[in-house]
Amino acid sequence: MRNVKCQMSNVKCQSGQALITLLFFVLISLTITSAAIIIIITNSTSVSKFQEGTLAYYVAESGVENALLRLLRNPSYTGETLAIGTSTAVITVTGANPKIVESIGQNGNFKRKVSAQMTYNSGYYTFSDWKEF
Length: 133
Prior knowledge:
By secondary structure, this protein is of the alpha+beta class. The protein has one domain (17-132): Pantoate--beta-alanine Ligase, Chain: A,domain 2, CATH 3.30.1300. The chain has helices at residues 2-8, 10-13, 15-73, and strands at 79-84, 87-94, 99-107, 110-121, 124-132. The protein has a five-stranded antiparallel sheet with strand order 1-2-3-4-5. It is rod-shaped, with a radius of gyration of 33 Å. The model has no long low-confidence stretch (mean pLDDT 86).
């Protein structure tokens, strides 16, 4: 008797399949959406850290440029701590001729170091080396 009812009324015999199919598609869409959100958060975090590191480099570079300007005005300049916004550059000048200027830029947890070498000759400073560590 049951077989006769299922053959006559297919809808009642297969009513659970629609719910299972719907749950399957909802599960797949939730998985895809969650994966996309995780990727976006990861990329956002890495870009933020990259920007902080780049800013630390620019702060260190600014420290070297500041030291070079101060050396032109005062040849006995030995360094300082320079505040640039919320970042700092610790500048040290060593040596006589050539003078080595080192600047460590710090922004948050990131530190970058830039070094430049200057030689004084006939009233002019010339750069022989500029590098990042």
